[in-house]
Amino acid sequence: MRGQISRCLVLLALAGLLLALLPPPAAAVDVQAVLAPFPDLAGFARLLASSPVARELAGRSSLTLLAVPNADLPQSPSAFAAAAGADLADVLRYHVLLEYLSPADLRRLPASGKLVTTLFQTTGRASADLGAVNVTAAGPSLGVVRSPAPFPGSNATVLGSVTSVPYNLSVLAVDGLIVPSGFDLAASESRPAAAVNITRVLADARGFNVAASMLEASGVVEEFEGDERGAGITVFVPTDDAFASLPAGDRLQSLPADRKAVVLRFHVLHSYYPLGSLESIVNPLQPTLATEYASQAGRFTLNITRSNGSVAIDTGVVQATITRTVFDQNPVAVFAVSKVLLPKEMFTKTDSSAIVAAALAPPPPAASNSMPPEPPGSARTPPTKLSSPPALRGNGTNGTTASLPPASSSWAKGTSVGWRCIAFLYLLPVLLPLV
């Protein structure tokens, strides 16, 4: 009995020793918090935060993030991705390796390199091993990351280690963005891009049910396809929470269909602006699609500025911020905004901070031959020159006088009675002696 107890104690001791020697289980890390202390990676961090990739990383661990410093980022990351027929979110997923690689691990790589799966492989859109990258050693402390199918923009050099959370997250700096391989560049350049179905984009992104239903019911979304062929479009889409937080007096849902269409057009810029362009926009006052339908220039504009690290949008009635990028592929950019953008031409803010719908009836067009209205209480100015009525004038041919109008016959009768009275006065002295 004592021997069995001793053996159990020995086994328990060995198990405790093995557990102590093993590394602790990996826990999910906050990538944004890890990148925050490095201002040189602020641009790359903003791209992550404005894309769905940030949420996809929230529940993962044992990752290697290939971060691109500000100086090595393309001026327009979205345009860079679109040139290869890729989506910016997929490009960012290609920079997330589903394996922890420290600088020491890079130095131990074989000469042929190592194929490492990326987050892009999890989307199901990468066939074979096109969702993986080949990492090879390029010196004592450097490495090269290559796509399996070589083409321009298919590799980047590892500049060094930025930081690490052991066994959870390793951040390596690379000298440029890497585009996922497997896209037919020749076909994408020769074939015009199909119009983006904004309603479907919102349905796939989730959290935009109200906006999607309003767009579909209004028919405004059909106007976007024509605008995409020009300079592109930028769409600001309120989330369902933004619609739920509308003040009770705004009466947006009770507006007529044509007025709702104006509000929806007010959420669209008639040009393609990726997030980086909005952050550094030169002219903050931007016209919208609703401006094109306005009778005067300068109406239905958005004031877009950068505030506290975010893009702020001021309508004159509400102030909203861009919360994330929903879709960004030239020539279409779709951003989620924290509030419904209500134009000051249609809504007004009262002293109690409530927002109410303003009078929307447009003024009637002024007729070219109409007289200006007279001020109330004013008297008409009398004519400065009198003229005889046309009926009393000669016809200019025979010198005869025109007949009197019916209204002048009473005047003639009055004249005859007067002459009779005068005659009676003359005869009165003659008649009195006879009486």
From TrEMBL:
Residue span, FAS1 domain: 28-178, 195-341
Biased composition range(s): Polar residues: 398-409
Residues annotated as transmembrane: none
GO aspect biological process, one term: abscisic acid-activated signaling pathway
Biased composition range(s): Pro residues: 364-376
Topology class, membrane: Lipid-anchor; GPI-anchor
GO cellular component term of the entry, any: side of membrane
Annotated Pfam families: Fasciclin (PF02469)
Signal peptide: 1-28
Subcellular location: Cell membrane
Record protein name field: Predicted protein
Organism: Hordeum vulgare subsp. vulgare
Gene encoding the protein: LOC123445473
